[in-house]
Amino acid sequence: MLWLGMVLAISFLEAPLKFRAPGVTLPLGLGIGRLVFRALNRAEAVLAALLIAAGVVIAPGGGTWAWLACAAAILCVQILLVRPPLTRRSDRVLAGEELPRSRAHFWYIGLESAKVVALIGLAITAAP
């Protein structure tokens, strides 16, 4: 549930609201976002590893393993395939280029939504 709470708070609350705050420019918001999402993804990776290790010890049912594998796989796709193009794009924007909205953002949001579903499924199947 901690992992779920972090994703909900940062991805669906902090990220969209950050750009509405007075005085937050696009470069400032991008810089903050990069730091926050890098930290979030690191924390998520640690939590995923801890849950996998706990699963090895506790030996939960197949449904729990399936939801955990789904959430961990989504996280890997985000970190390895989606974030790098977003980082390259934000580098270009921070360098002064004006670019249209990236489709990679939509992929990231879609994957975050799927990860939320997986984490809810994990919480339900892991509950005693």
Structure summary:
With 128 residues, this protein is mainly alpha-helical. It has helices spanning 2-18, 26-58, 62-94, 103-126. The protein has 4 helices and no strands.
**Alpha plus pi helix count:** 4
Reported for the largest beta sheet, the result is: none
Query: What is the strand content?
Result: under 5%
Task: Tell me how many strands there are.
Answer: 0
Structural class: mainly alpha
Instruction: Determine Rg (CA atoms, Å).
Output: 16 Å
Choose one word for the global shape: elongated
Could you characterize the architecture of this molecule?
The protein is mainly α and 128 residues long. 84% of the residues lie in helices and 0% in strands. It is built from four helices and no strands. It has helices at 2-18, 26-58, 62-94, 103-126. The longest helix has 33 residues, at 26-58. It is elongated and about 50 Å long.
Keywords:
4 helices; mainly alpha; 128 residues
Give the SSE layout.
Blueprint: H1 2-18, H2 26-58, H3 62-94, H4 103-126
Helix pairs in contact: 1-2, 1-4, 2-3, 3-4
